[in-house]
Amino acid sequence: MSQFTHFNKQGRAQMVDISNKEDTVRVAVAKTSIEMKKEVYEQIVRQEIGKGDVLAVAQVAGIMAAKNTSNIIPMCHPLPLKAVDIVFEWKEVQYFYKLIIEVTAKTKGSTGVEMEALTAASVCALTIYDMCKAVDKGMTIGKTYLVEKTGGKSGHYIRE
């Protein structure tokens, strides 16, 4: 079992020292989803939600979240992000629609971008919920998870 690095000798929280780590290109891909009634799906696609273009706003919110991850996750290092891309994919599932949200974050530095990708995906889904809750408060935000990451000492990870 690997040792937790966010605790100091006294067992208290610390920000990990990454000053000796080599800069490498690091990429992380995260996914989440949000399920909704057909009515909400149709209003989003036709851009009939009163608050505006839901996917455009959610995309910008996700990018902003990635850029601000270190401000809301206490032990995250501020990163110079090189790219953040968000892709949406609709799936019809029996009686509802599911929007798959995939975020790819990239940097060149001494620590990974997993938290930035995961934060962006989460905020993207939350923004969609916020913009559409007047039509359907029963929307469900699905599992949020890391799909893949490259770069750094731990190497390449692909979710099985």
TrEMBL record:
Catalytic activities: (8S)-3',8-cyclo-7,8-dihydroguanosine 5'-triphosphate = cyclic pyranopterin phosphate + diphosphate
Pathway membership: Cofactor biosynthesis; molybdopterin biosynthesis
Family matches, as Pfam families: MoaC
Binding site for substrate: M75, C76, H77, M115, E116
Enzyme Commission identifier(s): 4.6.1.17
Ranges of residues in domain Molybdopterin cofactor biosynthesis C (MoaC): 15-152
Keywords: Lyase, Molybdenum cofactor biosynthesis
Residues forming coiled coils: none
Oligomer status and interactors: Homohexamer; trimer of dimers.
Family: Belongs to the MoaC family.
Name of this chain's protein: Cyclic pyranopterin monophosphate synthase
Gene: moaC
